[in-house]
Amino acid sequence: MSQQGYVATPPYSQSQSGIGLSPLHGHYGDPSHAASPPGMMKPVGNLGATAPVVMMSPSPPPPGPHQLGQNGAQASGHSPQRFPGLLPVNSAAPSYAQYQPSTQPSYPSPVSTSSVTHLGSQLSAMHINSYGSGMAPPSQAPPGPPSVASFQGPPRPPQPSVLQPGSQVLPPPPTTLNGPGVSPLSLPAHRQDGLPGLPPLNTQYQPPPPPGPVLGAGYSPQQQAANYGPQMAGAQLSYPGSFPECPAQMAGTPPPPKKLDPDSIPSPIQVIENDRATRGGQVYSTNTRGQVPPLVTTDCVVQDQGNASPRYIRCTTYCFPCTSDMAKQAQIPLAAIIKPFATIPSNETPLYLVNHGENGPVRCNRCKAYMCPFMQFIEGGRRYQCGFCNCVNDVPPFYFQHLDHIGRRLDHYEKPELSLGSYEFVATLDYCRKNKPPNPPAFIFMIDVSYSNIKNGLVKLICEELKTVLEKLPKEEQEETSAIRVGFITYNKVLHFFNVKSNLARPQMMVVTDVGEVFVPLLDGFLVNYQESQSVIHNLLDQIPEIFADSNENETVFAPVIQAGMEALKAAECPGKLYIFHSSLPTAEAPGKLKNRNDKKLLNTDKEKILFQPQTSVYDSLAKDCVAHGCSMTVFLFPSQYVDVASLGLVPQLTGGTLYKYNNFQMHLDSQQFLNDLRNDIEKKIGFDAIMRVRTSTGFRATDFFGGAFMNNTTDVEMAAIDCDKAVTVGFKHDDKLNEDSGALIQCAVLYTTIGGQRRLRIHNLGLNCSSQLADLYNSCETDALINFFAKSAFKAVLHQPLKVIREILVNQTAHMLACYRKNCTNPSAVNQLILPDSMKIFPVYMNCLLKNCVLRSRPEISTDERAYQRQLVMTMGVADSQLFFYPQLLPIHTLDLKSTMLPAAVRCSESRLSEEGIFLLANGLNMFLWLGVSSPPELIQGIFNVPSFAHINTDMTLLPEVGNPHSQQLRMIMNIIQQKKPYSMKLTIVKQREQPEMVFRQFLVEDKGLYGGSSYVDFLCCVHRKISQLLN
Predict the structure, then answer these.
(1) Helices (H) and strands (E) in the chain — how many of each?
(2) Bridge pairing between strands 576-582 and 631-637
(3) Primary place of residence (predicted)?
(4) Of 613, 617, 696, 904, which has the fewest CB atoms closer than 10 Å, so is most exposed?
């Protein structure tokens, strides 16, 4: 330990060999990336307990131009508010006292320093049920030392959130709603949020108290430790008697007055509300390089003035560090989350289409970047210098224009590509397959007609619904009818192709029994125009349920179905999309046959990663072929048992399609959710046969890509299709120094085929700042984008790494990022303060939500299929979807103002916010719950459910009854608003307080301790603070 500069090693601190462990930049312990540990934190040396333990830069730079950070407008002039904070680790003399390994059995011993185990050891134990398997609950730990006197620097503009010791008063008891996520103690909007006294750290040695305030006078440290013990799963504040272990708290009696007040640690709700208050409803102009946009949760009008709208591109930070050393030191991932086809609201200008005819778009001769606002015209307009590679190019004669007195072209505002951040070009034949115009795409509907699907009415439901959705096939805005052609296949152990040519009196069926070598038995009449063949198609859809009514074939194939659809599109020489409706594990003898491998014994072992990998390589090679031929695939799964989502979902993920899953599908309960999803998917804005390339200015480059895409090389992101909900997350690394004057420029170009069959290029440009000051990097961070990046890189890593190692890397990097800020960007102050950058003050709560997600936490109660499903969904999510997914929206319905159309103010996701007299709506983008307190007002119950009392409510319903009164109408309107623009239809579950299904609802109260492991927000903050203190010591 001595070579690392640590003064002492308390039992919980573990071998600290991994301070510079490989950060989460897309590679978890991959040897090729782990050779050189990035940016070691330099130890400060052996300082006494009363000395400030951190070397700080004496005068951190002011916040700079980003006064509107994660928290909206910041008032200047206040000194940072000091929060009652976490106790220091190791800030006193060495703890040589009684270290008995036997009392801490779950601490792993120090291991070899390969990059993975290096990391694993650093994060040691922290299993406050969450980060490994070892920390004893604080209630069993020896008392911590008294706090160090805090050092206050001179007043300066507010930046960080600070936690330091001090007594707190708890909010009113949980029987009342405590307002919108803020107790009476919450700070005014313009001040920095404070973090109160977090629990003591397990230090063994107790030195005499130094001069200065002692934490929480009036009660013993043991009491304090006991107060911070781990709480019952999800039940911080509950109903009397439900958890006898904590009677005082549960019965609603006032808790001990010194307990950490959750209201005084940073609140996501407060940050979201502050940003809405300062930036909501305003025009956000993109004319300034590197400005931080409003949060994804804030509604505003975006005006493109030279940089792409944040609807298309969001970044983890809008100011890149000038050098790779700075990047390694901070360990903040440099990434962009790109959603090229994002939906634009009707009050914003749609993308302009630029057509240069046969000349095609103007491009740099060297780096091939497209003409954009970053190109500088010189020599009277005859040449231009590329903003990306600095190459000087001749302006083509057709494109020449004179310059004005400031060197700008006279037609600057007439050409979208010179004045806007986003626009489209019509592509020439050079950009088309085989140099000929593409054919319009086709949709092929493929229905599993096995016994169970016929018997439960699913096949009939699908056929009836297809008659409706085919009327709404997407079309170009100026066209009257859709150019998309359609085809139909049914299957069980064999495949049935249908000829629906318009001149037939009735459809014809052809059966392909050789599923080993699938071929398409007909070309003419298989893919048809819906309007022309409408009567034949309707005839077919009426007949399918009858044709197979007596079938008792229960075995199905799956890979041959994909193969058949791809071969049909290939033969028709068009891109397209397969819609597959499937319900069981494909066990019939055929390529892609799967066996049940749902082995719970693999959970929490190194072999668990196998459960997330496809069973056979067939699906991987199928996906590759599909992408090569522009064949995307969307699957609607209706499983009643294990179906191996990790295998069946691979092709949809890699081809830019979507996987929808309806467990134990019941017609009367689940059909509406399925029909909504099907309608929404067919009507989506979509581009086919796409290739995306991200170009950057000199000094950095795109290195990591996460999302629904296939990569044959290191630069081209190939997608069979990309729709308005799919995002690709791109990680960047330095390959040289960046210049503060020229900044960091990004251009994303997507070449694709429209639904009308036109080849186009969609271009998005974004300019970021560069700085040699770490403070600028932290001030420009965006927490929602950071969590999107960390989630995708972690979920990619589960295919290769043990979950415990991944969780440890995440906690480590969280601590490292915040320790670097603490050391380099704040005034010297006592080591027992947790100081968070203003833009990242809710990063810990979001990170804790990610760590508790079922993908990263094995538990037998959650099915393997569900975990594989959630992993796949997150891999293609945009920033707004991942924000809601990890931190759900919780709305008090009983406080509704019936005269207003505004949503009620959200509350924090914790059981302490619920009340017996309340009704709460929770949504996370996949699920929606209506939670009813046992004492819910009868008039609300009557108004919403049209029943006389709580006891009469039927919790099986998934749709609220249409009751013609204000309560019902208002609640249904709110549910519709929440559902709008979400990629998945959320199924409603009614939950009554104190009934069994409440356990499912509880796992979404993400600030509480996890039901199946995972610490509460408060405990995680303590854990991170301890890590930071270890790094700084």
Answers:
(1) 25, 30
(2) parallel
(3) cytoplasm
(4) 617
What pTM was estimated for this model as a whole?
A: 0.79
Radius of gyration of the chain (CA): 30
Residue with tokens 């914003």, as numbered in its chain:
348
pLDDT computed for residue 161 by the predictor? 65
For residue 624, how many other CB atoms are within 10 A of its CB?
Answer: 15
HSE of 93, CA atoms in CB hemisphere, 13 A:
8
Task: Say if strands 335-338 and 313-315 run parallel, antiparallel, or are unpaired.
Answer: antiparallel
Q: What is the pLDDT of residue 523?
A: 83
Helix ranges restricted to H, 85-165: 115-122
The two tokens of residue 945 are 């459910």
Helix, strand, coil percentages (3-state) for the chain, rounded to 5, are 30, 15, 55
- Residue 467: name the closest of 404, 543, 525 by CA: 543
Instruction: Give me the chain's average pLDDT, please.
Output: 80
Q: Evaluate if residue 770 carries a pLDDT over 90.
A: yes
Q: Is the pLDDT of residue 340 over 80?
A: yes
749: tokens are: 């170009």
Dig out the tokens for 353 from the structure: 């289409």
Provide the 8-state DSSP code for 105: T
Q: 435 or 9, which is more confident?
A: 435
Distance of alpha carbon 484 from alpha carbon 655, whole angstroms: 19
Task: Read off the DSSP letter of residue 911.
Answer: G
More confident residue, 387 or 12: 387
List, as one string, the DSSP characters of 952-991. G--TT-SS-----SHHHHHHHHHHHHHHTT-SSPPEEEEE
CB 587 within 8 A of CB 555: yes
Separation between Cα atoms, residue 802 and residue 788, nearest integer Å: 21
User: In the sheet that 927-932 helps form, which strands lie side by side, from edge to edge?
Assistant: 889-892, 919-923, 927-932, 987-992
Categorise residue 595: left if φ over 0, alpha if ψ from -120 to 50, beta otherwise.
Answer: beta
Helix (H) or strand (E) holding 646: helix 645-648
User: Quick one: pLDDT band at residue 482, thresholds 50, 70, 90?
Assistant: very high
Give the model confidence (pLDDT) of 445-477 as tens digits.
Answer: 999 999 999 999 999 999 999 999 999 999 988
Per-residue pLDDT of 361-407, as tens digits, reads 999 999 999 999 999 999 999 999 999 999 999 999 999 999 999 99
Following DSSP, what letter does each residue of 455-497 receive, concatenated? HTTHHHHHHHHHHHHGGG----TT-SS---EEEEEEESSSEEE
Please write the tens of the pLDDT for every residue from 694-713.
999 999 999 999 987 888 88
Q: Which residues contact 412 (CB under 8 A, 6 or more apart)?
A: 418, 419
Order of strands across the sheet with 335-338?
313-315, 335-338, 728-734, 700-706
Check pLDDT > 50 for residue 1021: yes
The number of C-alpha atoms within 13 Å of 758 and in the hemisphere containing its C-beta is: 13
Would you say residue 941 has pLDDT above 80?
yes
β-strand pairing of 717-723 with 686-696: antiparallel
Cβ contact 440:481 at 8 Å: no
Task: Compute how many other C-beta atoms are within 10 angstroms of the C-beta atom of residue 954.
Answer: 9
SS3 106: coil
Per-position DSSP letters for 813-857, written without gaps between them: HHHHHHHHHHHHSS----TT-EEE-GGGTTHHHHHHHHHHSTTTS
- Number of alpha carbons in the 13 Å side-chain half-sphere of residue 35: 2
Contacts of 614 (CB under 8 A, 6+ apart): 620, 646, 647, 650
Distance CA 602, CA 608 (A): 5
